[in-house]
Design a protein that fits this description.
mainly alpha
Length: about 375
């Protein structure tokens, strides 16, 4: 890959969110749809128009891996944390894991029995939908799943996860906020992104970042964030490779929370906006990695049905449990996103819901999910053999 192509791809991925944000401000309808969903659609189009320069995969991997670690601390710096939300987090954790387990078991009885390696697939779905891709890869090795099955499952998972996010971003959030308690103390705005940032004095206007004072503050924020990433990575490298991601995200979250209690850092403007822009880049890059041409839909209808049931079935079960145990809508949604899509998608959904206060809940549940995903996946695979 030539240096020119490398620079061009990086510019496309990094500047596309700016263009989408500008359009969302100018066109009311697109503003209501929101930049996250638009960037996902744009990313899917970019990844499937038939033009894939050599080395594009490398650029995608680098950008997708770098954006989230940069975003998490910045989005936490301006947050205010409440100890009284711990009980809600515990209930969200237990109901979320229970919902995934029930959906996987019921889905196995309907679809899994007709799939080769169905019990192993059930185990992998439990692992990936309580943890993340790292658990999916680990369970593949643990359960001895064929490469062909793993690749097909991974491809379907990207498609179903995209449909799941599309549902939440279009009608899901509003639907669940009517079905479940909606906590007013989150200070959530339904009208404008600028109101999301009102608590910390941030206006959500990226033009202010490019003033002399804005650039100075952005430099300070980036310096602190890079320091946090370096420390987190150093600590994670001391751990076994299988635990790297768990420890890395745990350290990022812990240090980000710690810095939020340091007033000079907490009061720096635009930390959330800059972190959110990194997430916008992550959205378009991840979406561009979905290769729709590799999906053999006709040859794997049972597998597709199993994934659809596991994802949307768990969402419905979790919503019912949340209604029973009086879990508020946003906590339930962020818990579901954490389990189904993994922690890197938490900041994106928090921004889409205009509720920064669920960030810690989502990241905390995600770390626990990473830790227990392999155990739950293995136990589920063994349990399904008894059915």
């Amino acid at each position: 890959m030539t240096i020119f192509n490398c620079i061009l791809l990086c510019l496309i991925f990094c500047l596309a969110p700016a263009g989408v944000l500008w359009i969302c401000r100018k066109v009311t309808l697109l503003g209501k749809i929101g930049p996250v969903l638009l960037l996902y659609i744009l990313g899917v189009i970019l990844g499937n128009i038939g033009i894939r320069p050599e080395g594009m995969g490398t650029i995608q991997d680098v950008l997708s891996s770098a954006m989230v670690p940069l975003a998490i601390p910045m989005m936490l710096f301006g947050c205010t944390f409440r100890l009284r939300e711990t009980r809600q987090q515990l209930k969200a954790l237990l109901t979320g894991i229970t919902a995934v387990a029930f959906a996987v078991v019921i889905g196995y009885l309907i679809f899994g029995r007709n799939i080769e390696e169905g019990t192993k697939i059930g185990g992998m779905l439990t692992g990936v939908y309580t943890g993340g891709t790292i658990n999916l890869a680990a369970l593949k090795t643990m359960l001895g799943v064929r490469n062909e099955t793993y690749i097909l499952l991974n491809s379907y998972d990207m498609l179903v996860s995209f449909l799941y996010l599309t549902f939440l971003l279009t009608i899901g959030v509003r639907l669940f906020r009517k079905f479940l308690p909606f906590k007013g103390d989150y200070e959530i705005s339904e009208t404008a992104e600028s109101e999301l940032n009102a608590e910390s004095g941030q206006e959500g206007d990226y033009r202010k970042i490019f003033t002399r004072e804005g650039l100075k503050n952005a430099g300070k924020l980036l310096g602190v964030t890079l320091g946090i990433c370096a420390v987190s990575g150093g600590v994670a490298l001391l751990c076994p490779e299988s635990a790297f991601m768990v420890v890395f995200i745990l350290m990022l979250t812990t240090l980000g929370i710690g810095c939020s209690f340091i007033k000079p850092i907490h009061n720096l403007p635009h930390s959330y906006d800059i972190g959110m822009y990194f997430i916008y880049i992550f959205c378009i890059v991840v979406a561009s990695m979905a290769d729709l041409t590799s999906l053999d839909l006709a040859g794997g209808l049972n597998l597709m049905g199993y994934l659809l049931f596991a994802v949307f079935g768990s969402l419905c079960i979790q919503a019912l449990l949340a209604r029973i145990f009086k879990i508020d809508a946003d906590t339930m949604i962020i818990a579901s996103v954490t389990f189904i899509n993994s922690p890197p998608f938490v900041p994106m959904m928090a921004a889409a819901m205009k509720n920064r206060n669920v960030l810690v809940t989502g990241l905390t549940l995600g770390i626990i999910g990473y830790a227990v995903g392999n155990y739950l996946g293995f136990l589920m695979s063994e349990f399904l053999k008894l059915l």
